[in-house]
Structure of ATP-dependent RNA helicase DbpA:
Amino acid sequence: MTTQSFTSLALAPRFLANLATLGYHAMTPIQAESLPAVLEGRDLIAQAKTGSGKTAAFGIGILHKLNPAWFAIQGLVLCPTRELADQVANELRRLARGVGNVKILTLTGGVSMRPQIASLEHGAHIVVGTPGRIRDHLGRNTLDLSNVQTLVLDEADRMTDMGFYDEIEGIVKACPQRRQTLLFSATYPDDIRFATAAFLRDPLEVAVESQHGAEQIAQRFYEIGFEGRDEAVARLLRHFQPVSTLAFCNTKVHCRELAEHLRAQGFSALALYGELEQQERDEILVLFANRSCSVLVATDVAARGLDIANLDTVINADISKDPEVHVHRIGRTGRGTESGLALSLCAPNEKKWVRLIEEYQDAAADWHRLDELGEDPDGAVPAPMVTLCIAGGKKAKLRPGDILGALTGDAGLRKDQVGKINVGEFASYVALERDVARDAVARLGDRQAPGPDFGAIKGRYFKMRFVEV
Ligand code: ADP
Ligand code: MG
């Protein structure tokens, strides 16, 4: 595979410098194939798996032609869920540091309209939102899309699956005819092809396979002193803002200490080490997989055999003395996801281990300094979801559909605010969007309930609690 540098693109030096501080050195395949055409202003249909770097592919396109001095909505990104919209907005904010003062607004459901309307009155350059809420704003005349230059349909297949087609059609009509339209999708079946054909003008089509190995992992080494290791991890997390991170420590004691330090800083971090009860371990893995925990701090033994999808970052809080273990650790992030980030901290006395890794990988370590990372003013980002544990599972004949039904019925949540549902033998776990979860679950209780911590599902009361991270 050839790696292509971002410097081959016609981007401003300041913008390129910012990409370098984000650790973006080589373009991912989807970026390499789409960015030249995107920067020329062509419409695009891009098909690539999760984790392939699609956000930057359109983000760079939007920002490249954005005029920060013009206070109008110039870019609109539609995403299927609030969670994805938040992720995209965060990534755009990081990319926008190379442009200047760019106002990026998220407009999604689950929060009241009024603050969104107030923000819109203050003006924004880019709006990222879900089709339903954007449509609501259009219906109330609180959103002006007449200056949109770039329209992005992100995860188009999921949006159509979720029945957003009519909303999308209405939104596209509210955008000017002369615009650039970029469509991203993990799959591109005929029905979506037909449905979206009218939105696109002579689009370039690119599709990228997702089979890539270690060359898709950006690996960086950070030299640290003999102290401040845990704070260095927090700093990396604040800077890179990954959604899911596996952080390795060499000992159980350090695992617990690091997870505690991160929690104290506002991260949703949990420690996974041997000696945990099976049930505790299972619970932790459920929370990590359903995005209620964004940093899993683990020892090698505990992490063995863990299959974690969508892991964007591995951090070696302690470097491994065994280069093979090191390569195994970082290989967890290049998997289904195409580009991964592997960050390793190294104190002066540990340099010898890095030399072994260099020999083993036959590549020189890419050294960086912690102080070249600007402090992120946003601070720690908590996990997007929280988990509700329901004291009932298969034995009680509880099914995922029953839980979803109660949450979207009595609790009043939208389907996309409910995440993964795991039904075990005796207990079930369900992930809910953090900001709306507690109010919604409270609505499952009523005066007939046997206690304040009971909620009704399909006419039966179950004890339920939120799992603290
Ligand atoms: P997708 O939308 O295709 O699922 P994302 O845009 O969310 O993927 O990118 C996945 C991860 O890869 C993110 O953490 C992002 O910051 C990172 N990333 C994107 N492009 C690059 C790059 N060129 N080099 C290194 N990391 C990148
Ligand atoms: Mg994406």
Notes: The CA atoms of residues 40 and 61 lie 9 Å apart. The chain has a mean pLDDT of 90. The domain at 219-372 is CATH 3.40.50.300 (Rossmann fold).
